[in-house]
Design a protein that fits this description.
- The complex is a heterodimer of chains A (110) and B (123).
- Chain A contains no helices and 9 strands.
- Chain A has 110 residues and is mostly beta strands.
- The relative contact order of chain A is 0.35.
- Chain B is mainly β and 123 residues long.
């Protein structure tokens, strides 16, 4: 099972908004509304920030939003803050195995 | 406070076995599915295996199917991963992760993670 495709890196300035894409196929992202996003700071465990395509767990800032269109899911972070600098991973249910992750995107806050 | 503490990692030769454990606390363990997710140092995440609240549903990634066995002991609030026939490509940090729901399948979301235990497979 191939990983979902994410850009290797994105960057933005404090206060700006950025969007990270996650492209799959009809066997995963396009076929199911079971997409999630994780944030991982260096040396730390991942943190769930989005599930069911666009739902935020309790305690996650509403600066994080997400949606899906066709085979591509997207995570938007608005009002960028320095603490948002981290790696972001998307994940989706797939028909071939239970769950697949994207390759990860490194967000740099300039 | 939810806590997941992995143990059992280390250096092992190719073809040998290793058993990982995860001690859970701070939540009702038998109300949730549990998972193992691994991460190659400096690289991405890979879901390895999941087990439903009552061990009734178990799933594995194709890369470990037939070699790894997941299990849980709800009386001990513990999750396990028996890894046999280890290969160099199994080298990774292994995370124990709590599922958001009771079952394994479409809604495998991981809302709490341990700090991971490093498994290195090398001769």
């Amino acid at each position: 099972q191939s990983a979902l495709t994410q850009p290797a890196s994105v960057s933005g300035s404090p206060g700006q908004s950025i969007t990270i894409s996650c492209t799959g196929t009809t066997s995963d992202v396009g076929g199911y509304d079971y997409v999630s996003w994780y944030q991982q700071h260096p040396g730390k465990a991942p943190k769930l920030i989005i599930y069911h395509v666009s739902k935020r767990p309790s305690g996650v800032s509403n600066r994080f939003s997400a949606f899906k269109s066709g085979n591509t899911a997207s995570l938007t972070i608005s009002g960028l803050q320095t603490e948002d600098e981290a790696d972001y991973y998307c994940s989706s249910y797939t028909t071939s195995t239970t769950r697949v992750f994207g390759g990860g995107t490194k967000l740099t806050v300039l | 406070e939810v806590q997941l503490v992995e143990s059992g990692g280390g250096l092992v030769q190719p073809g040998r076995s290793l058993r990982l454990s995860c001690a859970a606390s701070g939540f009702t363990f038998d109300n949730y599915a549990m998972h193992w997710v691994r991460q190659t140092p400096g690289k991405g995440l890979e879901w390895v295996s999941g087990i439903s609240w009552n061990s009734g549903t178990i799933a594995y990634a194709d890369s470990v199917k037939g070699r790894f066995t997941i299990s849980r002991d709800n009386a001990k609030n513990s999750l396990y991963l028996q890894m046999n026939s280890l290969r160099a490509e199994d080298t990774a940090f292994y995370y124990c992760a709590k599922g958001l729901y009771v079952e394994v399948g479409t809604t495998d979301y991981f809302d709490y993670w341990g700090q991971g235990t490093l498994v290195t497979v090398s001769s």
